[in-house]
Amino acid sequence: MRRALLLAFIQTALYSSVLAKFNPLHHSGPAAPYFNAPPQFGISDETPPGCVVDQAAYIVRHGARYPEPGGSVDGWESLFAKFQSSDYTASGSLAFMPSWTPAIDAMANEPLYLTTAGAMEAFNLGVELRQRYGLTQGGDNLTVWSASQQRVEDTASYFLDGYLSQGNFLLNKTLNRGTIVTLPDSVNFTFANSLTPGNGCPLYPTGDKSALANTFRASYQPAIAQRLNTMLDGLELNVTDIGPMMDLCGFQTVINGNKEFCGIFTDDEWLDYEYADDLNYYYGSGPGNPFSAVVGFPYVKAVTDLLVVGPNKTTNGSTIIPPNLLMSFTHDNNIPPIVSALGIWNESTVSPLSPTTPNTQRHFRSSFLVNFLGHIAIERLSCDQPLPFSVKHVAGQIVPRPGKSSDTKQYVRIRINDAPVPVPGCTSGPGSTCPLSDFADYVTERGKTIGNFVDVCGLKNVSNATSSVTFFTDFPPNSTVFTPLPEAM
Ligand SMILES: *[C@@H]1O[C@H](CO)[C@@H](O)[C@H](O)[C@H]1NC(C)=O
Ligand SMILES: *[C@@H]1O[C@H](CO)[C@@H](O)[C@H](O)[C@H]1NC(C)=O
Ligand SMILES: *[C@@H]1O[C@H](CO)[C@@H](O)[C@H](O)[C@H]1NC(C)=O
Ligand SMILES: *[C@@H]1O[C@H](CO)[C@@H](O)[C@H](O)[C@H]1NC(C)=O
Ligand SMILES: *[C@@H]1O[C@H](CO)[C@@H](O)[C@H](O)[C@H]1NC(C)=O
Ligand SMILES: *[C@@H]1O[C@H](CO)[C@@H](O)[C@H](O)[C@H]1NC(C)=O
Ligand SMILES: *[C@@H]1O[C@H](CO)[C@@H](O)[C@H](O)[C@H]1NC(C)=O
Ligand SMILES: *[C@@H]1O[C@H](CO)[C@@H](O)[C@H](O)[C@H]1NC(C)=O
Ligand SMILES: *[C@@H]1O[C@H](CO)[C@@H](O)[C@H](O)[C@H]1NC(C)=O
Ligand SMILES: CC(=O)N[C@H]1CO[C@H](CO)[C@@H](O)[C@@H]1O
Predict the structure, then answer these.
(1) Annotated catalytic, 332?
(2) Which residue owns the Cα nearest ligand 4 atom 14?
(3) Is the CB–ligand 3 distance for residue 188 below 6 Å?
(4) Of 337, 424, 431, 427, which is closest to residue 376 (Cα–Cα)?
(5) If one looks up domain 22-38+57-362+435-482 in CATH, what number appears?
(6) Closest Cα to residue 482, out of 181, 185, 161?
(7) Which candidate in 154, 185, 277, 332 is catalytic?
(8) Which of 190, 243, 320, 487 has its CA 20 to 30 A from that of 464?
(9) Where in the chain are disulfide-linked cysteines found (predicted)?
(10) Which has the closest alpha carbon to 416: 380, 370, 377, 373?
């Protein structure tokens, strides 16, 4: 008995030491498969006791994909050519390189599109959100919104397959159907009313300082190449090879589960690699781009307005009754603008990010935000007193759950890859949430500071330019609608 306990103790200790071990996949930025971010502010990711979430909005990067044709695929091909075209000996963690081949086996159909792991991530999110919230009843249809590239639509589609996978509805064509509203991708004529709004803001590219990431890469890559060359006799790697090799840790993992590249680099080398990605997003599409907040704000404003209206209600003059779970699917660079618009992760001690020296206390981490399926959730909570120690029941009367009684108060919580992130200066609610009316005031103030899309983006000369997201309540021009679930045979 005692032996068994001791054994269990040792196993637990071993397991937690494995968990605590440095994991390169948690430091691989946009190449990392999805994982829940660790709590950066010590707030539990559970819904606080006494509360239920009665509305939620998610903006989600597509799931894990193959590399992009051209850029990344070319990098893999050059690496392959380099390791195949000469006589050499590779040792240690590089001993697998002479037998390495790029993990793409259908060149025309794989690059750019989801991997099976990406499809699974999206399906799992659907399962998780039905379980977590129960915001729609079994049999209810669900409408979601998507940018229009294939990998994004496929993510929306697999999400719906997961979300709608319960019960016996597959053959019923009128119940439990998913609908995807597809918004034109990367066009400049939809302005703010888009899931790729940066493309509708002419001045946005002028604020992009993501080149700082390359300067930082140039500071650490030479030493890595030098170190790796000690394991190669007859072949010399240079800085050009390091980026693709580090990317291959995440990418091969999501293609075929092979983690050989993850074993090549030291913890410090991974931390530098991650920081380069942080600089890329912080200064490219995040708070370091002065046009980032104005690009993200229209989405934040539209969601906030719907949370203020509340669940199960139509808004004035809308043609769509938006569901209580608002799902939007898009690309990596459309997620950081939401962080900027919300003004979160912005303490003066850790922002702006230094172009040369990583601050280990920083909150802004690409691995926690724009990894595959990375997402920001804005939840509306209804709360009252948590369940007391004992509850009296009267025959035939269901006692309302805490959060569902008649005198609830409403709060807002932001979660990034599941980890709660406090609204600056607004944490008085249960679980450090922000009272809904204060949140609405906070967003209004943010709007005044940030300015409106048309003015700030330099679109005053364009007569039909818009500063508002209205796609949740009105089908925008050039959107398409389709139902992804298989029809009955
Ligand atoms: C679909 O569900 C509805 C409501 O339960 C039912 O009336 C209808 O017969 C079902 N159709 C099929 C094909 O199962
Ligand atoms: C659900 O969606 C299907 C397919 O788009 C549609 O035919 C059906 O009327 C919808 N059902 C409800 C209850 O809205
Ligand atoms: C959108 O792009 C087209 C083609 O590049 C250009 O002619 C047009 O002026 C742009 N429109 C706006 C509003 O920036
Ligand atoms: C604005 O006008 C342009 C040119 O007429 C058109 O292509 C575009 O679809 C319009 N955009 C909106 C949001 O109405
Ligand atoms: C690195 O080596 C490759 C050939 O393997 C070459 O194409 C590339 O220009 C080199 N890069 C640098 C920075 O020297
Ligand atoms: C919204 O309506 C659904 C039924 O469609 C119901 O189950 C849910 O309790 C309602 N939510 C609120 C907050 O009224
Ligand atoms: C709804 O919109 C109409 C027309 O835009 C306006 O006249 C009316 O006052 C609005 N109602 C509410 C309750 O906001
Ligand atoms: C971050 O905070 C600083 C100082 O409080 C402010 O000047 C800056 O505009 C903020 N940035 C964002 C993106 O909110
Ligand atoms: C947008 O829709 C209009 C009219 O439906 C069509 O003529 C135009 O080609 C569409 N533009 C795009 C980029 O899909
Ligand atoms: C139609 C038009 O003239 N558009 C211009 C409006 O201003 C922006 C930013 O100054 C230009 O990029 C557009 O070309």
Answers:
(1) yes
(2) 464
(3) yes
(4) 337
(5) 3.40.50.1240
(6) 181
(7) 332
(8) 320
(9) 51-383, 249-262, 426-434
(10) 377
